[in-house]
Amino acid sequence: MKKLLMAATAAAVLMAGTPAFAANTDSDTFDINASVAKTCTMENIGDIQLGTVNVNTNAGSTALFINDVASSSTNSFYVSCNDTNSMTISSANAGRLTTSTPLTGADAGFKNTINYSLAADNYRNGGVLQQPGFRRSALFGLVQLNNGASRGALHRQVKFDALVDPLNNLDARPVAGTYTDTVTVTVTAS
């Protein structure tokens, strides 16, 4: 009996030290989440100086009409958008450079505006016809080009090219003066 009691005690001690038959590993999963807000940013855009716009100084029926192309560009500046975006370009004077020189007392056929064109360079892939901008002509008025057209995320240098074309200014002769316009460029994540 003593042997039986010892065996029962030994078995109890062994059972107490042996864990139950349970799984020896366990796992679970969890997600890590973050978000990035849509944003667009542009560096400062420099002014465009077209210089002196040449007019025909020869006497005759075409005297004083603009007779040479005047063109210039802004500095290159970064445009960065981390989502689909669009660029809109607007002119305070609807694509016209204006002067404060009055037309009072001037003969018919003079104007105090100069039609011009403006286009982004390198905002979109492709040539000038794919870029946002506008063209102002005496014949067609203000024509918007790809203004507000959507494109994918970007980070690149862009510039603007301005052009005074004699063919878009055949409506009248510009009076002498300093001509200006203010252009607003907006890049919007969509």
UniProtKB/TrEMBL annotation:
Residues 28-186 form the Spore coat protein U/FanG domain. It holds the Pfam family SCPU. Residues 1-22 form the signal peptide. Keywords: Signal. The keyword Signal applies. This is Spore coat protein U/FanG domain-containing protein.
